[in-house]
Amino acid sequence: MKRLLYIELQKILKNKASRVLSITYFVILSFIALIASIKFDIGPIHVDAAETGIFNFPYIWHFNTYVASILKFFLAVVIVSMMANEYSYGTLKQNLIDGMNKAEFIKSKFLAVLLFAGVSTIFVFVMTLILGYSFSSYNEFSIVFSDLEYLLAYFIKLVGFFSFCLFLGILVKRSAFALGFLLVWFVAEKITGGLMYHYFSNTNDEIVTKIFSAFPLESMSNLIVEPVSRLSFIKSIGNQIGVENIKDYSVHTSSILIVLVWTVIFMLMSYKILQKRDL
Fold first, then answer.
1. What is the SS3 assignment for 182?
2. Do the beta carbons of residue 57 and residue 143 sit within 8 Å?
3. Which helix or strand (DSSP H or E) is residue 244 part of?
4. Residue 172 in 3-state DSSP?
5. Which residue has the higher pLDDT, 121 or 134?
6. Which end of the chain is less congested by CB atoms within 10 angstroms, N or C?
């Protein structure tokens, strides 16, 4: 495994575009800290982001992982390009000539996916601790380290999404087309979900929701629900205008299992494509 991961790291580090995109991702990720400096006035109302509670433990675990997951597309480009370069530069064929079999090749790519997801999760963990201890009103150990399931959900979400990107990179071969296919898939899921709710929700709303939540990108999205409406002042505004918030913000085991199943499916499909393809 170390040999396979070393080979992948060498490919990534020697590619300038991959290095730049990876560094850019972590730099932008660190910009979450700048949210604390946001201050503005709306008439007589003074808004200070740091005082809204977004950096309070344990809420900050939810907020930071949600924001960080939005930025995952930077690393998605790296994953797709990593696969596209194998075809463009002929390294895939050379690896097979040098003795690596196709199963080992897929394993090496999945190790790279795990590495990206793991490093990103550790980065978010450290950054969240720093921001939390700097701005949170609650610093008790039991509070600080509660809600850590959002970190697990973040890791699983990245692994699933990157596995999907890897599959698209193998399927389409060209990074631009693979990213375009990703966008088309996202739109297709939303349209399909909208049509399902339009035609079937009146009588089978719960069933439609369960089916739609099992779609690949939707299942990944459901791992970490948006956290803004969870803030106390947002809830207060909702109560004042008569809007009841019944949203479930928990990380559900079922959602994790669905994404893990899709991850296995994407990796198996990637392997099957390589097996049948004439390289």
1. helix
2. yes
3. none
4. helix
5. 121
6. N
